[in-house]
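RECORD TYPE: inverse folding
INPUT: structure tokens
STRUCTURE:
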């Protein structure tokens, strides 16, 4: 009898797998056991705002850093500033993105708050997708303090400044182009040469910087050529093409090999975000 039950369960699972995700739903459970696997959702999922933490500026003001998680593996989301993409209290527009790429993106933007903001005060970011609202609260509570200026990853633990983010400049930072014309943007960056890695010859050298581009705001689709590349002698150039006229903000992420683009989500350093504005007429 036991063998018959096991055979029946196995046949049921096999039939569900053959039938595809529509029969499985998000996961398969057998007799109260743990899920066999978690299905990836290409689209139809929601969006979660994320509060990353805060650091302090030299003038005493504070940066509250935010990111997001788009739970889809394929579907990107556009949510304009307004009822479905807002900060509270105060002004709804705090420089947040309106374009949300797939999956997790960390320390995407900052909101600068005054030195007298207070440890108990909160800044709430609400994102609403498909009628479901998710809210995250930013606070200056000490447990949320982070360090965006330095890390010991790829450096050495005895020197707190052993690995710092690149210094980056994108030019022009503001430009206008005619519809159907690509915008040209140059990136210049310098770095401390950390982290390092051992090459095939056994010698250690810098991992090297990469720049990755993304739309931050804008009414149409943006095609970056190339979307990601290595910097050569601290230089990189990209062309941006737009599907519709309007005002765009583009985001350049320059990573020294130890930050978000390198997959190190446990840290807040070392990469630098730079924005440029393009008006397509």
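DESIGNED SEQUENCE:
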């Amino acid at each position: 009898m036991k063998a018959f039950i096991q055979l029946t369960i196995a046949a049921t699972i096999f039939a569900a797998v053959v039938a595809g995700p529509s029969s499985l739903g998000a996961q398969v459970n057998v007799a109260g056991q743990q899920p066999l696997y978690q299905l990836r959702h290409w689209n139809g999922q929601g969006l979660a705002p994320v509060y990353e933490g805060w650091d302090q500026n030299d003038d005493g003001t504070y940066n509250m850093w935010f990111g997001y998680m788009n739970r889809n593996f394929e579907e990107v989301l556009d949510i304009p500033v307004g009822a479905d993409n807002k900060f509270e209290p105060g002004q709804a527009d705090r420089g947040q993105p309106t374009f949300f790429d797939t999956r997790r993106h960390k320390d995407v933007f900052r909101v600068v708050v005054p030195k007298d903001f207070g440890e108990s005060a909160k800044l709430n970011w609400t994102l609403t997708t498909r009628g479901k609202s998710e809210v995250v609260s930013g606070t200056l509570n000490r447990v949320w303090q982070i360090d965006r200026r330095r890390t010991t990853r790829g450096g050495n633990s005895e020197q707190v400044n052993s690995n710092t983010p690149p210094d980056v400049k994108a030019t022009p930072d503001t430009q206008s182009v005619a519809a159907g014309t690509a915008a040209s943007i140059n990136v210049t960056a310098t770095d401390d040469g950390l982290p390092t890695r051992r090459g095939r010859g056994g010698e250690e050298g810098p991992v090297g910087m990469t720049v990755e581009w993304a739309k931050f705001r804008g009414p149409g689709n943006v095609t970056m050529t190339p979307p990601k590349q290595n910097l050569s002698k601290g230089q990189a150039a990209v062309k941006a093409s737009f599907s519709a006229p309007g005002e765009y903000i583009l985001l350049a992420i320059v990573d020294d090999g130890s930050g978000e683009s390198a997959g190190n989500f446990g840290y807040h350093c070392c990469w630098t975000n730079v924005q440029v504005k393009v008006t397509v007429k």
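NOTES: The longest strand covers residues 103-113.
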